[in-house]
Amino acid sequence: MKAIIYKSKALLSDIDLNELLRKARIHNSQHQITGILVTVIDGFYQYIEGPEDYIDSLYHRIVMDERHHDVTKIYEHPLTHRRFHNWSMGYLNLIHVDDLAQIENHENTVEEFQALIERIMPLELDESLQLQTT
Ligand SMILES: Cc1cc2nc3c(=O)[nH]c(=O)nc-3n(C[C@H](O)[C@H](O)[C@H](O)COP(=O)(O)O)c2cc1C
Question: Mean pLDDT over all residues of the chain?
Fold first, then answer.
């Protein structure tokens, strides 16, 4: 297994997030992919984890997706156990961009990311797009 975190830029008002998440969750649960999608003011952060081949091909499709741009990988590493095993694709709407920017300068990025998500999660869950367990 492996995990990737990337960030990207997007005009969120132009994107149907419900539709994006609905399709992503179907695909991910069929390919043992789990993770979390985070929206910030000007785009996305996403953490994906799962079998290496599936993660590589998903990441390739995500990079090609015209709904966002400037996709930048900020973490890529082998994984022995899942961090977000309950979620085919969790969703978190964040405005605390500064918090997230910090993870890019941190050596232990994935632990930081997970800790940050868990710390903020109870406060910032978007009501219209509830986290889904698979
Ligand atoms: C920010 C963002 C995150 C995405 N996350 C996923 C995901 O987790 N799983 C997934 O199957 N598709 C995800 N997609 C959609 C893919 O980019 C792509 O549209 C989808 O896999 C269908 O690809 P296809 O049209 O080549 O079949 C995401 C798209 C964007 C813009």
Answer: 83
pLDDT digits 0-9 by tens, 7-32: 999 999 999 999 999 999 999 999 99
Question: Can you tell me which atom of ligand 1 is nearest the CA of 25?
Answer: 9
> Is 40 part of a structural domain of the chain?
yes
pLDDT of residue 124: 45
Query: By alpha-carbon position, which residue is closest to atom 19 of ligand 1?
Result: 65
Residue 130, domain member (yes or no) = no
Structural domains counted in the chain? 1
Break the chain down into helix, strand, coil percent, rounded to 5.
40, 30, 35
Residues with Cβ within 8 Å of residue 56, at least 6 apart in sequence: 2
CATH of the domain at 73: 3.30.70.100
- What's residue 90's pLDDT? 86
Q: Can you say how many angstroms the Cα of residue 61 is from the centroid of all Cα atoms in its chain? A: 14
Q: Give the atom of ligand 1 at the shortest distance from the alpha carbon of 8.
A: 1
Q: What is the mean predicted confidence (pLDDT) over 62-81?
A: 94
